[in-house]
Amino acid sequence: MATTVDRKGKAPAAPRPGGRSARPRKDVSGSRRLAAFLLSPTLLVLGLVVGYPVIAGFRESLFTRGQTLDADGFVVEGERFVGLDNYTAIFSGDAAGTFWNAFGNTTFFTVTTVTLETVIGVTMALIMQWAFRGRGLVRASVLVPWAIPTAISGLLWRWIFQADGAFNAMIRQQVLWTADGFESKLAVIIAEVWKTSPFIGLLVLAGLQMIPRDVYEAARVDGAGAVQQFWRITLPLVKPALLVAVLFRMLDVLRMFDLPAVLIGVNKRSVETLTMISWFEANNLRYGSAAAYATILFVYIAVISYLFVKLLGADIIGDARQVTKGKKIRKAGKTGKTGRASA
Amino acid sequence: MRRTPLAGMFAGLALALTACGGGDGGSAATEEDAAGALTGRGPITLATGKDRSGNMQKMVDAWNQAHPNEQARIIELPDEPNDQRQQMIQNATTKSDAYTILNLDVVWTAEFAANRWVVELPRGGQGVDTAPLLPATVTTGEYRGKLYSMPLTSDSGLLFYRTDLLEKAGVAEPPTTWQEMWAACDKVKALPEGKNVDCYLTEVGKTEGLTVTTAEAINSAGGTIVGPDGKPTLSTPQAKAGLDFLVNAVKDGRMPKAALTLDGEGGRRHFQAGKLLFHRQWPYQYDLANKKDGSSKVAGRFAVAPIPGPDGPGAANLGGHNYAISAFAKNKASALDFIKYMADGAQQKANSLATSQAPTVASLYSDPDMTKKYPFLPTLKTAIEKAKSRPAAVKYGDVTAAIQGAVYDAVSGKTDTAAALTDLQGKLGRLTTQ
């Protein structure tokens, strides 16, 4: 998806400089053909590894098989085309409750964890930005939770959250974190935020280091306080990096599976996400229905990221380029906002 | 470290794809197997869970020495039973011949047989001999009256109890009814040593263990989850009595609240820490709780009895593992011989002595070598003879998930017993009619 945005952004920009006479225009269309030719292997590979699974998954979601028994008790083989039955089944009957519960959980986790991670991550980045002794050590240690495989950190937190675990010993109360209740949601949020805040922290830190010191000096000379500097300088200038980090986190958490599965367990309503019901369906050999869930999740993720990109202007590739370009513009004493506007 | 967004979904879709690719063609192999001809000799493999004791390898080595042209190789699958099932299913849906013999959990037989992933085993003559086995274990290998897997090990729930505490409280015999068990608890609770000891624990966490617990409670009360005609039978007073026993045990504090989060191993830790009076557990705990290396505080201070019921010993759950032959494997004749070799009484005895797994051959339960090492074997035999299987369903994964969901809500106090049973009756009805 990201690459198409980039290519579309480039294509109209190319003819502009030489748009005066007929000859350069011909050159342009020639170079466009060349570009298309040179890019075609990439597109082909992308189509194979990205496009094909999506389409094949969608196709699978229109079929069902192995769901009926014959008179001797054997499963009737062969697949049967059922159209959109797998989809309508999701929104009606027994499955509807499960689906909306999982949909609600997925959305709830996305909103809560990404919000918390953003606040904590930005705070982490600001702290790491300060020059102090042992900064390298702090940066490296912040990375540790992110470096641990999710399944392992899920196990780790399960020990912490078990009935006689460290967390209950600390709060001197017996809370059943891994039972199937609201506490389990909290446990997942705590573990997830612990694990992924460093990711936002490090991406924001990279953004922070792009901001030249003299901008702050100028602000200080003009009498801006620390809070003002944060809202008027730091946040706008770090926004491109922050938005990319938040978008990545959102995509990640929307398809969260292993953390709740390991920490709380599968088949627990309070933490069941869309990927988990898809997994459950596949596990019970209903591949068509599993593919339908996966397709719905795919569409949900696509819609969310589209809205995010449109509403907040998080242009993943474009902004990354902008940050480096913006540096030169900013050196001339302008803010990032004008740099962005020129793009 | 940085994963591509959507990668998880694609993985899911790709999984669906692989499965789809395996769906077409290759039905010829199944037809040939349906004829019942187990032919072909040569190397074979055994797909199984972890061989913790290393004894399985020893038995395979002995086989390999005697059969140089039909070498067997163990393929170790992941530790989690569900992951093992998943890998075996993947192997079957791609019609791969990588696994010759499958080490199946007893509850998987129906699913594997109905999908024609395993072949029917011939009985008598050149086939396997089920006559020396405990009859209850043989039923776990059957689907619609035909044998699809050979029971190799058995298992049944037992009541572990603290002999030292009961003795102090003046209770001479282990309880045989639920009432007697609660009465014994109250007596122990009155002792100074009994202050911090929980009364009773059985698995009620939302895992497969809860299905086992539910089946035991309902079977003990004389009910069934799914009747002989394959229809759910939960609207009976027996089913209600069984579930009420579990619900009230949690409500009255007989079971610690933490039970809702404990799995089998969590329960074992609790018992071995000396904080539990009565514990429904599988026999594997016997050896571990008797270890004198300091890992168990109750070594030598406990014994086992059949699990209690409402008015006499209850019906425990039947566990264990069976060997089946994959429908897509080569060298099925060798596989059949290998199964006969592994299921043989002498091999089972050696295996039981090395691993404490319960055998399926009936005579071993009174074998002097065996009873010397495992004094609880006669108790276990009684338990297995009375034991009942979990519902045999082709859609076992859905059935067990439905049972866990409804019963967990009742046990954790979210719904009452009657509502949980009505809900479950409806869900299982839909799952078993399809």
Automatic annotation (TrEMBL), chain A:
What are the record keywords, sorted? Answer: Cell membrane, Membrane, Sugar transport, Transmembrane, Transmembrane helix, Transport
* Biological process per Gene Ontology, one example term: transmembrane transport
Where does the ABC transmembrane type-1 domain lie?
103-308
Q: How does it sit in the membrane?
A: Multi-pass membrane protein
Which residues does the annotated region (Disordered) include? 1-27
Q: Which GO terms describe its cellular component?
A: plasma membrane
Query: Where can this protein be found?
Result: Cell membrane
Highest rank taxon of the organism: Bacteria
**Transmembrane annotation, as ranges:** 34-55, 108-128, 140-160, 186-208, 229-251, 290-309
Leader peptide range in chain numbering:
none
Report biased composition (Low complexity) as residue ranges.
Answer: 11-21
Q: What is its main location?
A: membrane
Family under the similarity heading: Belongs to the binding-protein-dependent transport system permease family.
The protein in question is named: Multiple sugar transport system permease protein
Naturally occurring in which organism (per UniProt)? Actinomadura viridis
TrEMBL record, chain B:
Q: Does the keyword Kinase apply?
A: no
Signal peptide coordinates: 1-21
Q: Which UniProt keywords apply?
A: Signal, Sugar transport, Transport
Which residues are listed as membrane-spanning?
none
Q: PROSITE patterns given for it?
A: PROKAR_LIPOPROTEIN
The answer on whether this UniProt entry bears the keyword Signal reads yes
Family of this protein = Belongs to the bacterial solute-binding protein 1 family.
Instruction: Supply the name of the protein.
Output: Multiple sugar transport system substrate-binding protein
